[in-house]
Amino acid sequence: MPEFTWLPANRATPEDVAAVFATAGARKCRCQAMKVPGWIWRDTTQEERDAAQLEQTACGTAGPTSGLIGYVDGEAAGWVAVEQRENYPRLWSRKQPWMRMDPELAGVWSVTCFVVRTGWRKAGLTYALAAATVEYGQQVGAHVLEGYPIDPPPGKTVIWDEASVGLVQVFLDAGYEVVASPTLRRRVVRRRPDASA
To answer: How many structural domains comprise the chain?
Structure first.
């Protein structure tokens, strides 16, 4: 079995981050959809998104950082975005109230995006990355971890853009629980990192 390990992105190299984001739609988005105050494709350029992610990951520094890099046998293979909820302005600017549930709740860290590098897809890496968010949440003192995954109807598939937020089962396997079902396909999940799965 391949060995899975992970690091906060600030302890990874910029080259590792770039390798994960080198393919598919994530290469263009750079995990900025929930970060930019306006519409990502209209109000930012590719250069701005690249620079923003480089700054947010803070590779080679003491942090803070914006996510985790997952490694398979030592090679960078995946990413999960996880940081304090207040660092995501789009969660607060959108009209959907489920994106800002319990605004007074302190210590909430949001898990907003998964990226798996070509060559490791459909191998369960998102499950390992979701589990890593729990361990990381314990390390950084998060009170609550929160995600916004898709739950497709039985037999239905999702496109990349939808799956990037994660699927419900991925979170459930990491000990998260569904706390809201605001639409037919969208769920809000939470977990306290210090709670046993």
So the answer is: 1
